[in-house]
Amino acid sequence: MSEVLYSATLKSADEAPATSRANKRSIFEYGSSLRFEFKLGLGLLAWICFLCGWHWLSISGLANQTLLPGPVRVLEAWVTLFTERGFAVDVIQSVKRIFASFGIAIAIALPLGILMGAYAPVAAFFNALVSPFRYLPAPSFVPLLLMWLGTGDSQKIALLVIGVVFFLISLFMDNTRTVSAELVECSRTLGATRRNVLWHVLLPAALPSYVDTARQMLAMSWTYLVIAEIVASTDGIGAMMMRARRFVQVDDIMAGILTIGLLGLLADITIRLLHRLCFRYLY
């Protein structure tokens, strides 16, 4: 009996370190998840490292402080822009352009992408146009848009639409095609018409993917904002950055970049929360 207890004790002692090692390795296993507090801590640590490295580089003498101001100077410039120079008006104008253009792009891309994903003849017809246009850089349309639409908001919104609409069409088409064929076959077996399948099977099943795709492509729309606003523009974040360039106010330029990043992050978080609230069954 004592020998059995002794061997069991040795076995448990051997297994304990192995279990401990397995627990330590588990966070690096493929597909592992982390607690929210741990993810938040790692994210904050990454930003602390980035800001410390940036601050050290700006004060070390390796870079010209005029061309590379530190994070403290950029933060001071950011506050000054809002409190003394009416930067809030520029931000509001930029936000209006982003959401107006993205709304137009969604209105074009969503129905077309659904139809292309659902019906092969529609995809064969429109893909011949959509696929090549995805590879054309949106800034190359600036001269044409200036001649066609002038220098007002129409030209800027059109450029932002061109920058994302063709990618949205292709991605919405792919989202539609990911719907399980069994769902469609089951609905047809129960007597559903093509219209019923489209509205009551494909659209609800792919809707979470559509929202997630829109969230990701909204980030691309923000990247085109400065390009849209640097040409003959009197307001907007990009226009402010171009004014700052004339006077070599690099801290103002970096404050503008910071503002775009914060606005994009806020939009991304908002859509993520809406996705979680509207599609609770996926979480």
Topology record:
Blueprint lengths: L1 H25 L9 H24 L11 H14 L2 H32 L1 H15 L7 H8 L3 H25 L3 H9 L4 H30 L1 H5 L7 H10 L3 H29 L5
Helix pairs in contact: 3-12, 4-5, 4-7, 4-9, 4-11, 5-7, 6-7, 7-9, 8-9, 9-12, 11-12
What does this structure look like?
By secondary structure, this protein is mostly helical. It has a single domain, classed as MetI-like fold (Orthogonal Bundle). About 2% of the residues have low confidence.
Keywords:
283 residues; mainly alpha; MetI-like fold; globular
Put the structure in a nutshell.
This protein is 80% helix and 0% strand. By secondary structure, it is an all-alpha fold. The chain has one domain (71-282): MetI-like fold (Orthogonal Bundle).
